[in-house]
Amino acid sequence: MLTVAQAFEKFMQGLELHEGEDREAKRQERNVFEAMRRRLGPRESILSGSYGRKTAIRPLHDIDLFLIFTANTSGTGKTVGPEEFLNRVKEALEEEFRGKQARLQNRSVNIEFNGTGIGFDVVPALEDPRRPGTYWIPDVRKDDWIQSNPRKHIDACDAANAKASQRLKPLIKAIKRWRQLQGKPVPSFLLEVMAYKGIDSFHPDPRLSIYAQGMAHLFQFMSERIMEQWPEPAGLGPPVNSGVGQTNLVQGQQRLSGAARRAARALELERVGDILGANEIWRELLGPDFPVR
Asked: Using one digit for the tens of pLDDT, what is the confidence trace for 233-249?
């Protein structure tokens, strides 16, 4: 029988991207960037989002591709409407990748590729000439431009992971799998940002699985704090939970509370030596990929 720690190690390994998936994602990223450079001339690209922060889980679907433009505009993009800018990107993608229909989203344009199942959310950005490293990205719902810096998001994630002895990113991936099984009630980035803070108050018992304790701790922390405003890690854009409906937040809180109770029970069982019972609860929470035996 697997110990709880061994079961978590095997489960975490199963969430990692395969070498082929990673290689194919980077190859397609280069193709998309070169295609966009031919049409619209972005200066550079950043692999952002969960893929860029290395918190993506398999199977890999959409990758955020941040395209940086040096535009002959005010720098805040005020001379170009956000929807107009996104439509330019959409048209350019469809011209370069014939037969594919790109989809306009709130802050990006999505395009999917056959065969690999990998798609890209292309986020066009204008660098602020007065603040190098600060970018303006379109927000259709606001009909305005908002500030962002994905490199700071990556730095914030890396810093939190380092404080947690490199164990936070695996925990974030496990929570993302749990979220998928729950029907994705709230954005994964909101859970990830809460995890950066939640890990600060984590003090594990060396007698129990550290990943099991980390999951239980984060479920409890998130259930208690999800209704708060969570600042965007770069300190530039709107809060991470901006635009998340109250109904979704309440649903997320309820499901996190339920997960916290089940996780606490799993820790109790592990503590008294009922390893099979503990692993069965973790399988219930994290899905059939979590090994029991």
From this structure: 999 989 999 989 999 99
pLDDT, position 71: 58
Q: Looking at residue 76, what is its pLDDT?
A: 45
- Within 122-274, residue ranges assigned H as helices are 150-163, 168-181, 188-198, 210-225, 246-271
Structure tokens at 148: 């962002």
Instruction: Tell me: do 180 and 249 sit in the same domain.
Output: yes
Number of Cβ within 10 Å of residue 78's Cβ equals 11
CATH code, domain with 40? 3.30.460.90
CA–CA gap between residue 255 and residue 249 (Å, rounded): 10
Domain range for residue 228?
4-15+153-286
What value does the mean pLDDT take over residues 86-103?
94
pLDDT digits (tens, 9 = 90+) for 20-74: 888 888 888 999 999 999 999 999 999 999 999 999 998 888 899 999 987 554 3
CA dihedral 16, 19, 20, 25 (to 10 degrees): 70
Q: What distance in Å separates the CA atoms of residue 156 and residue 158, rounded to the nearest whole number?
A: 6
- Residue where one domain finishes, among candidates 116, 148, 180: 148
CA–CA gap between residue 279 and residue 270 (Å, rounded)? 8
Q: Which residues contact 262 (CB under 8 A, 6 or more apart)?
A: 281, 284, 285
Task: Dump the DSSP string for 48-91.
Answer: EHHHHHT---SSP-EEEEEEEE--SS-SS-TTS-HHHHHHHHHH
Same domain, 78 and 180: no
Identify whether residues 142 and 194 lie together within a single domain. Answer: no
